[in-house]
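Long-time lurker. I teach an intro course on protein structure, and each term I like to show students one example going from raw sequence to a predicted 3D structure in token notation. This year I'd like something fresh instead of my usual example. Would anyone be willing to generate the tokens for the chain below so I can use it in lecture? Attribution to the forum is fine with me.
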Amino acid sequence: MTQPVSSARQGGPDEAHAPDAGSPKRDTAPRSLGPRVDVRTLSLLGVLAVLIAVGGFTEPDAFLDTGNLQLILTQSSVIGVVTVGMTFVITSGGIDLSVGAMVALASVWATTVATQEYGFTGILFTAVVVGLAAGMVNGLLIAYGRMVPFIATLAMLASARGLALQITDGKTQLVTVGSVLDLGLPDSYVLGVPPLVMMFAAVAVIGWLLLNRTTFGRRTVAIGGNPEAARLAGIDVRRQRLLLHLLSGLCCGIAAFMLVVLSGSGQNTNGNLYELDAIAAAIIGGTLLSGGRGTIVGSVLGVLVFTTITNIFALNNLQSDVQQIAKGAIIVAAVLVQRRTSAPG
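-- Reply from a regular --
Happy to contribute to a lecture. Here you go:
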């Protein structure tokens, strides 16, 4: 008798796992996964603490300045929102290479002269709708068009970038709506916390609840662990995948609005390499690249680690190519660790 896949067990308070197929004994003893979750999270916290110590040692005045710490959190917020959506997609066994291009398209569409005439609401609404529309196209192609996620999202990457370039004609679109620009000013901070950071925190909390405390999250983990078993258990796998890409598009729309606030403009180059950063942050956070396991807390810590590294390198005048090499090395190390921890026995 087939076990209900929707009852995917969780390895800890911040991580959702797919059930182990064909191993009833392991299903009844989830305790073995608890230490793994704790070790992974503690390891990331340890890495973050070491980076803070390095930054404080190399550039104590600049790195530990309140303004710089606020900058790190603010820069983490935009890519962090994208990473939350990416975590869901990867947990389901998929991939989304178009997130950076969707952010660019949403940001330029939301900053056209016609859109800005509708003020704050018009910019926010347009960014979200464009993100949702692009995510829907991805979801329809993958779920109902049966396209491989890599190919479908790669096509969206190229198309969205091209459309963003066409809209802007290669020019920067400046934002003239004061209420939008004010969100990025220190006067709008609440107890020293920038509004964009609070938006990121809200998205992360909602994402954690959605992944760990709802049927939607359990279905996401289930289809990532074994899509055929999920289908046999009554889960509409195609609809779930469509919803997941809608969620990814929604996160890209929100991130596009945040980026408009942060930069005060819309450009076709916005969101460049966001797909790399989002995938990397999710992976080093503990989300399994092959699907079936995801953690929002780990993804958030992964984003903070990468942003802190970038900030330290910038303060020490290290070139961007060194930053990319460091990111690549971290990704490789994280995947190797995943292979060891997920290997049977």
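Some talking points for your students: The beta strands are 10-12, 15-17, 173-174, 265-266, 293-294. The two ends are 26 Å apart (CA to CA).
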